[in-house]
Each structure stands twice: as C-alpha cells, then as structure tokens.
Amino acid sequence: MQKIVAVVGGGIGGLSACHHLSKSPNVSKVVLLEGSGRYGGWLNSTRRDDGAVFEHGPRGVRPAGAVGWNALNMVSELGLESEILFVTKDHVASKNRFLYVNGQLHKMPSGFGGLLRTISPFSRPIIHTVLKEMLVSKGKDKDESVHAFVSRRLSPELADIAIDSMCRGVFAGDCRQLSVRSCFPPLYKAERARGSIVLGMLMGSGGGGPNVVPSELAKRASEESWSQWSLKRGMQTLPEALENSLRRQERVEVHHNTLVNSLTLQGGVWEIKLEDGSTLKADHLISTLPASVLASVLPPTAQPLTEQLRSIASATVAVVNLEYEGFVLPVTGFGHLVPSSEDPGLLGVVYDSVSFPQHNRNGGATTRLTVMMGGAWFEQAFGNLHEVTQQTVLDRATAAVASHLGVTSPPVWSLVSILKDCIPQYHLGHWKRLEKMRQYISKNNLPLTLAGASYDGVSVNDVIFSGRTAAEGLVGKI
Fold first, then answer.
1. Cα–Cα distance for residue pair 366/323, rounded to 1 Å
2. Which pLDDT value is given to residue 208?
3. Which residues neighbour 383 within 8 Å (Cβ) at sequence distance 6 or greater?
4. Mind listing the pLDDT tens digit for each residue in 448-467?
5. What is the number of other CB atoms lying within 10 angstroms of the CB of residue 232?
6. Residue of higher predicted confidence among 241 and 116
7. Which of 388, 453, 396 lies closest to 422 in space, CA to CA?
8. Nearest 5 degrees, angle CA 62-CA 65-CA 69?
9. What's the N-to-C CA distance of the chain in angstroms?
C-alpha cells in the first residue's frame, strides 16, 4: 500500500529522511513541514559579499566510520564533491588542540611520544593511566556518568580536565550528568565486551556498526586521511542542496513557516493541525523535532510518551563569530577548550581561520574565531535567557579572546547568535527513556518514528543517519 508520510522538522535530519523516502516507490507522497523560515536547523552559515563565511552551528564534519561515510555518500548524491574543503590528519588544525587551564594554553598530547611524557596540565604521563586501565575491574551499573566512568577506569585528573572539557566541546554539557552509555557508546561497549576500553579499542567490542557502502568520495576521505570536511560556501550548502533536490521531486512537498499546532490520531491516520487552521492527513509521521517540541503537540492520549519526551533536557549555547585584522593568534591549531573548573560559562574558542582559511575574506589577512559560551552553565553565566543582551555576550567573548590569546585589538566584525535549546543532553538513564518511548510506540501501534538529535547522537553525521534509518524503517533498505 502506498503511504503519505509527513516529516515534521526541516533540519538536516528531516531533510535526510525526505531524501531517502523520495527514492522509494512505496511512498505516494512525502510532506516536509518546517516551522521556521529556513531549512537546515542548526546548520547555518553567514556569507559575506567579500567571500568570508562564518558558521553559527557545526563548522566541520568528521568523515570517519559508517555514519561519516553515509554523510559523504549524500554529499556525492547531491553533486557537491567539487564544493568540499577538507583538513587532513597531519594538518596543524588536526594535530594541535589546546586546553586553557590555570590561566594558560596547554597543547594536548598527540602521537605516541605525547603519551610517554608528562605534559602539563597533567601530573603524569598518560601511558601510565592507559596501561593501568586494563587491570581495572568491569563496572556493574547499567549506566554511569561520563565523569564517574572515566574517573574509575582512567583517572580523576583526566576526567576533571580532559573529559570535562571534551564534553563541553561536543555536548556543551556537564560530564557529571551526561551518560557514558548514550554519549560515548564505543567506550561503554568496550568495557562490556572486553572489560577494558583499551582492549575493546584494540580487539573490537563486537556487535559491529551499521553497514554503509562507501562512495568514491568516502573512499577518498579514507585514503587521504581527512580529519574533517566542510563546504566552500559553508555548511548551510548541504541543506540548501537537499531542499533543491526535494523540490524537483514530484512526490515531495516542502513547506516552511508551517508550524504544527496539534496532532491527533483518527483510525490509524494522523490529522496534523497547522497554525493557520488548515489540516493535513498522513499515514505515518517521522518527527525530527526536538523531543520537548514534539511533546507539546502530541495528543493527550499519548501522555506516557509525552512525559518521557519532556524528560530529555537541552542546552542553550551563545555563539560569537569574531573577525580580526591580520593574523593575531599566538598559536596555530584547531582551537582550545576550557574545563568547567577554569570558567564554567566559557566552553571554548575555535580558530576557524586555521582549519578553513578558504572561508576568510578576499584580500588582506584576517583571523576568524568562534567563541562558544553557556551550555549547561548558561543561566549561571548570563542569567535569564530572555534578558541577556547581545552586547553582554559580545563583551564576554572579546574579553576571553584578550585574556586567553592576548588579542587586545577590537574585532573588525562580529556576530552574536544565541542558539536556544540547540544541543540535547543525554543525561544518566537516557537509554532507558528511549527504550520506554519506543516500546510505547510499538505496543500502541503508533504510526510514528522518532529521529533527530534528541535520541541517538547529536553530531551532524548521527542526525543525517537517523533520518535515513527512520526512512528505511518505514520502506525497507533503499
């Protein structure tokens, strides 16, 4: 039977779901509903007339693993190969990553030599910790905070400094609250399978990942050892290409500025009431909305599901793009992260001009930086979200650049974005919440699929893959 499928949420996950659904003959119509005025969600680039590109969300994508290949396969299908920019593993932006601890920058250990020496801010060589890890007995709990897991298996020092910083960089979250099982599944699985992270990494932890056949582009990324990639006109190019491709498909309708007011299920068919008062019908719904947003439109009869959805928290991040005249950095590398013990409100600074100098303006050297602030500490740092001024955020960012990097000249250009609830937080027990939600959907035969960043991974790769998985769960492998 041919189905009408509605995809709610036009971020990269929703676009990916539509892209895969549009290839299947088993779907008579795909309708994409996006509430805002643009597609792509947090993939959002500012392009200036002088050639400069600034990212307000994700700025580089890792090409590794099945989900990394899957994203590059989509780039190929959209004909964007010639738009790719990449950074290799031997590039300074891949090798040099810094931590800002005790008021100064410290280069993170890299390569085997870095593991053998004591490198500040750590008090002993990391190799000691790694070798000792193989002797630590297996944990008994079904889940554990990232901080507790790393403290137990490696060392409290590593958890307090490196892992704390990394969780702030990836999730804008607090490693004392985040779940190791949901945020870092490979670590959790390695301990379960081999009793050790090190042995799990060396010998594999079984169970294999998803099966994705790499395109020529994905193979090239592997052969050339890319560590990350972007696009010449910024990451927003990807959702734009997906939107254009979908608009050319007869069976696909895409709508923006189309807010969903409520969802009701009548005789196994969804009635989707829109804000303008009109109603749409669909045989199946794929939601890539943030969990709390979906919770607000589900029918009262789905209350057990709504409660679980509401329990998935999210963090707000203040992103400040800065441009300085000339090359002003005291070091070159990807950027630096800041542990919460040093400055809770400041997550890190990315040295955009080092990774992707192609995004600098034409004519005359400049330095582009992005300062990330807030996250799980947003209110602590800035107070009430609705009362924060852009000037306060900008001042805080330029002060950080001055004190951390010694850049005292004012920026020649800046842009402040406050990304409300942009990163879901997989707190302790997240796996159990997902299990309960999916069991409820299955038991009640709800024609509903959950996809997007709220559930199975927050990276661009994960979200693109979740859209594909949602589509294939409905129409089979495409």
1. 7
2. 64
3. none
4. 999 999 999 999 999 999 99
5. 15
6. 241
7. 453
8. 75
9. 17
Where do the DSSP E strands lie in 308-354? 313-325, 335-337, 346-350
From the centroid of its chain, how far is CA 96?
A: 21
Q: Give the mean pLDDT of the chain.
A: 93
Question: Which helix H or strand E contains 430, and what residues bound it?
Answer: helix 430-443
Q: Which of 331, 360, 357, 460 is nearest to 86 (CA)?
A: 357
Q: Which of 279, 287, 282 is nearest to 3 (CA)?
A: 282
9-38 confidence digits (pLDDT tens): 999 999 999 999 999 988 999 999 999 999
* Pairing mode, strands 269-274 and 279-282: antiparallel
Q: Cβ distance 43 to 417 under 8 Å? A: no
Q: Give the H or E element holding residue 375.
A: strand 366-375
Structure tokens at 429: 């027990």
Against a cut of 0.85, is the pTM above it?
yes
Structure-model confidence comparison of residues 197 and 271, the more confident one: 271
Kindly give the residue spans of alpha helices, DSSP state H, lying in 55-145.
Answer: 65-77, 92-95, 111-116, 126-133
CB 22 within 8 A of CB 251: yes
